[in-house]
Amino acid sequence: MKNFLINAVIFLLVLVGSLLVGWHFIQEDIILFFTQVDIVPEEFELNSLETEANAEFDWDAVYLLGAWDWLGYVGIGDQVSPIGELIIPSIGTRLPIFHGVGEPNISIGAGTVLPDAVIGEGNYTLASHWDPNPGIRFGGLDLVEIGDLLILRDSDYLYIYETIIANYVIDAYRSDITDYVEGKVLLTLFTCTADGLRRVMVRGEFVNKLSIADAAEMLAQLEDLTALMNATDLEVLTEVIETLDETAIPFPVVHLTLAVGGALILAGFVVWISNRGIKHKND
After folding, report:
1. What is the mean pLDDT of residues 169-197?
2. What is the per-residue pLDDT across 228-246, written as a single tens digit (0 to 9) for each?
3. Sequence-distant (≥ 6) Cβ neighbours of residue 141 within 8 angstroms
4. Are 237 and 229 in contact (CB under 8 A)?
5. The 3-state secondary structure of the chain, one letter per residue
6. Residue 64 and residue 249: Cα distance in Å, rounded?
7. Between the ranges 35-39, 154-158, 227-231, where is the mean pLDDT highest?
């Protein structure tokens, strides 16, 4: 009985420890699945009109998101009204865009900082919560490099920007990053640093826009951009176009199975090794 209890304790300790390690590797897929938002471009314009009146624009009132606060937004994807989509291919980010920076906007997507923001005009500024995982909220924003593509999507067009400022750390109360710059069409993205004391900013400059039709027609339009973009950027943009309608995030069955199965196997192996050691000592 004593050996059984010891084995049970060892098994549970190793299992829990292994699951915690496994969670580190699969949490991004889990969080993305449970907080995903339905992207329906045909509804962007109507959503914009419906949400404009009640949007919040007080960034200073936004609190630092806790590690498990995302649980409060599980299944909320069909209850919110995105007005567009942000795509950052270099870090695997695809986020719905919402009017304003209130909750849950910047916990499950990116929010417009200015009430009169119009995609493809002026200095379109978006904010989102920081996250340790690239691809979730604005996690990985500090990994964007100068020259990387930033893409906005509304119901009619893809708006293509090229990063001109990357990983720019600024004071948390600096507000001039939303200012218009005469003669330029910009996209400005920012989030808090991990400690919440400063902000990380990325800025892109408008390159061109593509009319959204079927994929074949959009790919044909790329010929007009060959003089403006290098081969790598055109390849990235081609991949974005080809996967534009693949917005549903599947449940990570394989990753979860590997994590749980691996934890069970490791826990069982440790118990087996422990018993062999005890048996060898008794012999």
Report:
1. 88
2. 788 888 888 888 988 888 8
3. 91, 130, 167, 189, 190, 191, 200, 202
4. yes
5. CHHHHHHHHHHHHHHHHHHHHHHHHHHHHHHHHHCCCCCCHHHHHHHHHHHCCCCCCCHHHCCCCCCCHHHHHCCHHHCCCCCEEEEEHHHCEEEEEECCCCCCHHHHCEEECCCCCCCCCCEEEEECCCCCCCCCCCCCHHHCCCCCEEEEECCCEEEEEEEEEEEEEEECCCCHHHCCCCCCCEEEEEEECCCCCEEEEEEEEEEEEEECCCHHHHHHHHHHHCCCCCHHHHHHHHHHHHCCCCCCCCCCHHHHHHHHHHHHHHHHHHHHHHHHHHHHHHC
6. 26
7. 154-158
Tokens of 246: 């693949």
Q: Does domain 41-248 have CATH number 2.40.260.10?
A: yes
- Straight-line distance from the first to the last Cα atom of the chain, in angstroms, rounded to the nearest whole number: 20
For residues 216-220, give the mean pLDDT: 83
Burial group, residue 232, by CB count within 10 angstroms (0-12, 13-18, 19+):
exposed
270 to 5, 253, 260: CA distances (angstroms): 15, 26, 15
For residue 90, which of 127, 142, 38, 132 has the smallest C-alpha distance?
142
**Residue at 261: amino acid letter:** G
Mark 238-249 as b/e (b = at least 16 C-beta within 10 Å).
eebbeebeeeeb
What the block records as the tokens of 256 is 């979860």
Q: Other CB atoms closer than 10 Å to residue 7's CB: what's the count?
A: 17
Both structure tokens of 128: 């989102």
Q: What is the pLDDT of residues 46-74, one digit of tens each?
A: 888 888 878 888 776 677 677 677 777 88
Span 12-28, average pLDDT: 85
Task: Give the rounded distance of the alpha carbon of 85 from its chain centre.
Answer: 11
